[in-house]
Design brief:
19% helix
Length: 293
């Protein structure tokens, strides 16, 4: 279902060679309008059902991942693996055009889902709420062998700077020493920026201001975060984290000597050697493949 051929109109929306070169240099890319309004509108309805507690499928574990529930506070809601739980969000996250764009940007013949998250921000008047701290996705997927993982950020509506869109630091995917930058929940963005500046790095923040139906993509090494939502509307978006074809599982130990495991390692099928299989179609479905183009 999700590896169907693209139409001629969709093929015309894929990144050009110049776009791919820009992504490789800067670590981010903004697409044309590639998602139909009706797909996003269905995802909005699906998210509303999700927040009401409705599920089409349930995860085998209730902890070990971000899982906002009513009563947890409303400045920002973060729920992971929503495409495994709500069909409308799965329909959006597995749109073949998303995988086809990712394949072009990573020069890969196949793109698989890795994980996803639904993030909701309410309007704020104070700086300390609704912030996503500077981090790299690479820091949260140390069990992956690939350095070409990337994420698609899909807002469910027009996004200008006032609404707290994703913000990337231009070219930061080329910086060294950021592979363990895990500051998602560190809300003082300026404090983290001072550390970058002390290392002599030039900080150029680029907000992903998009129209409904556009998507931004960023490299797993690109530092990103977001500011509060200062608008009068909620900000709702889905982040879809993607694997290039070469990605495999690798064991990883942190600086304390503790072995790190990803939540999905417990759910996916295992290889003959006992390691998690990051190509398990039930958990990491193919979003797009050149074999079906």
């Amino acid at each position: 279902m999700f590896t169907q051929s693209l139409s001629q109109e969709q093929l015309a929306l894929l990144p050009t060679d110049e776009d791919v070169a820009f992504y490789e240099e800067h670590g981010w890319y903004i697409s044309k309008k590639v998602i139909p309004d009706e797909i996003i509108d269905q995802a909005i309805l699906g998210s509303e059902k999700f927040y009401r507690g409705e599920r089409d499928a349930t995860l085998p574990y209730s902890s070990g991942y971000s899982n906002w529930k009513p009563g947890d506070g409303d400045s920002m809601r973060n729920n992971e693996f929503v495409s495994m739980q709500k069909k409308e969000l799965r329909q959006l996250g597995l749109q073949p055009i998303i995988g086809a764009i990712a394949a072009r940007l990573t020069r890969s013949k196949r793109i698989r889902l890795f994980e996803d998250q639904l993030v909701y921000k309410t309007p704020q008047s104070k700086d300390q709420f609704g912030v996503v701290g500077w981090h790299t996705d690479r820091a949260y997927c140390s069990n992956c062998t690939s350095d070409n993982l990337l994420a698609a950020w899909i807002p469910f509506h027009d996004c200008d700077e006032s609404i707290g869109p994703l913000v990337v630091i231009d070219g930061s995917h080329k910086w060294s020493g950021t592979e363990h930058l895990r500051c998602f929940n560190h809300h003082n963005l300026k404090e983290t920026e001072k550390k970058f500046a002390q290392e002599g790095r030039r900080i150029v923040e680029v907000p992903m201001t998009l129209k409904k139906g556009q998507i931004s993509f960023h490299h797993c090494g690109t530092i990103h975060g977001s500011y509060p939502n200062y608008s009068n509307s909620i900000r709702l978006a889905m982040a879809v984290h993607l694997q290039d074809d070469a990605n495999r599982y690798q064991p990883y130990w942190n600086h304390k000597g503790e072995q790190i495991h990803h939540f999905l390692d417990r759910i996916c099928r295992k290889l003959p050697n006992g390691n998690p299989d990051y190509s398990d179609p039930a958990v990491f479905p193919v979003v797009w493949s050149a074999e079906h183009s």
